[in-house]
Amino acid sequence: MGISRRTFFQWLGASAALSMLPGTSEAAAAGEELATMLDLSRCVGCGSCVEACREANQAKYPRPTQPFPKMYPQGRVQVADWSERRQVDDRLTPYNWLFIQTATGTYNDQPFEIHIPRRCLHCTNPPCANLCPWGAAFKQANGIVRINDQICLGGAKCKAVCPWHIPERQTGVGLYLDILPAYAGNGVMYKCDRCWNRIAEGALPACIEACPYDVQTIGPRQAIVEKAHQLAESMHGFLYGEHENGGTNTIYVSPVPFDVLNAAIATGPGRPHLQSVPNPFHEEERLTRAILAAPLAGIAAGALQILRATKEDSHEDK
Ligand code: SF4
Ligand code: SF4
Ligand code: SF4
């Protein structure tokens, strides 16, 4: 099932209508996660999406207070100041939530040049939100993963646990300045919030709206996954994001395998990789099941022992 922009707006319109009644938009959105599909065969790397993202989200960008408080013990947390480098657009920063990676090379003896818009993938089971000690990172019912800049202390746990190390810190802004500026945290973490406010108003995310080549499609996850599979099949292509990290709400479709793309892109701070990422919670779920099963197994074993002893006693009594 494909989803045109019109269908998306009809779907979104229905949600928006429901949202007029208190609490109904959350109920309607629960279980109906949004996902985006990016058709990399269409992206020309023009950067219109990057510009649109910066323009649409400017009001959310950090406005740090200078000078920054001195941290104790010194060197505990590094200062991260991007406020004088807001124009940087070739990597993720607190002022640049989307950038274009370019991979060039040959595949099947054919030269390729693939442009890859990179941002937070909005994981379906996001470790950044699950493991944030302060509850600052969270996932909305519609699948959008956000960081609350009013609560975040900039401790960067979200960045450490994110397989792509997406969130970026800006020092000199946020709650830590009002608590213990020398000792607690060191700013606020920033990343793509999938234009949650635009979606709530029934508009498309800015990057999707601005793209002249319709690279991105947004819609309910299951429908997007089906569309991505159809597209991949039609181009004999490959998917990234459907299963990575247990599944994300960003599905890339490429005519070139992602391990080939990963080898061809520059990776490092602010420039995420394209390696396959196993589900980190798979092992945890297995362990949880084992731990939960352990007392039951113990009870069962104990009950069996009691039963055996009772039987033996009754035999001895005979
Ligand atoms: S996604 Fe669209 S707007 Fe962004 S670089 Fe590619 S073609 Fe340009
Ligand atoms: S990609 Fe990283 S920052 Fe984005 S939701 Fe997943 S874990 Fe969180
Ligand atoms: S969804 Fe919004 S915040 Fe995220 S990259 Fe696109 S424009 Fe930027």
Structure description:
- Helix content is 34%, strand content 15%.
- The protein has 318 residues and is an alpha+beta fold.
- The model is unreliable at 1-28 and 286-318 (pLDDT under 50).
- The protein binds iron/sulfur cluster (3 copies).
- Residues 43-49, 100, 115, 117, 210-211, 213, 215 line the site of one iron/sulfur cluster (SF4).
Query: Low-confidence stretches at least 5 residues in length (pLDDT < 50)?
Result: 1-28, 286-318
Enumerate how many helices there are, as a single number: 10
Total strands: the figure is 10
As a whole number of angstroms, the C-alpha radius of gyration is 24 Å
Strand % is 15-25%
Inertia-based shape: globular
Oligomer state equals: single chain
Task: Give the names of the bound compounds.
Answer: iron/sulfur cluster
What percentage of residues falls in helices of 4 or more residues?
25-40%
How are the strands of the biggest sheet laid out side by side? 8-1-10-9
Question: How confident overall, as mean pLDDT?
Answer: 82
Taking the sheet with the most strands, its summary is: 4 strands, mixed
Content-based structural category: alpha+beta
Span of the ends, CA to CA: 73 Å
